[in-house]
Design a protein that fits this description.
The strands form two sheets. Strands 1, 2, 3, 4, 5, 6, 7 and 10 form an eight-stranded antiparallel sheet that branches. It is elongated and about 60 Å long. The protein has 155 residues and is an all-beta fold. It has a single domain, classed as Porin (Beta Barrel). It is 0% helix and 72% strand.
Length: 155
């Protein structure tokens, strides 16, 4: 959800990572989100995103210590569209950065539950206008508070 503005989205994603060094992994991810544009009745948003970055694991989970934490930073690239009825709006792809703090719980050998919170900044706000030359009716902020929950499986 945005720090300010009109769009709340929910969705899903997947990522793969490779433990490059002890306590540092490289990561590629992507996903989709969608939601309502609250300032415009009947309007919806749809976002496709991809990311690549690095994860620092200062407190790695082990069988003797099943609780851990990690810090993540990514470059993100996203495509955003908004629709209302048959009218639609899409903007050129946005790029930016994100940062997360993840808490991890090893609940089975090779499987962790992960809960994260972070900030995502696409470096540009998106104004939604119905007619060219008119003031915006909604704004999707560049800085968003994001949360995630999921399962990490080790291969």
């Amino acid at each position: 959800m945005g720090i300010s503005g009109s769009a709340d989205e929910y969705g899903g994603g997947a990522a793969v990572s490779w433990l490059a060094l002890n306590g540092v992994s490289l990561r590629l991810g992507g996903g989709v989100r969608g939601g309502a544009l609250s300032a415009v009745p009947g309007a919806n948003t749809f976002t496709i995103w991809g990311s690549g970055g690095v994860v620092f694991h200062p407190w790695q989970v082990t069988s003797s210590r099943p609780i851990g934490a990690s810090l993540r930073a990514d470059y993100i690239l996203m495509y955003l569209s908004a629709t209302r009825g048959e009218a639609g709006y899409s903007r050129p792809p946005l790029s930016g950065i994100d940062g997360y703090i993840d808490a991890e719980w090893l609940f089975a050998q090779g499987a962790e539950f992960v809960l994260g919170v972070g900030l995502e900044d696409v470096l540009a706000k998106t104004d939604i206008v119905l007619e060219r030359g008119r003031p915006p009716i909604a704004t999707i902020p560049p800085l968003r508070l994001v949360g995630e929950a999921g399962v990490r499986v080790q291969f």
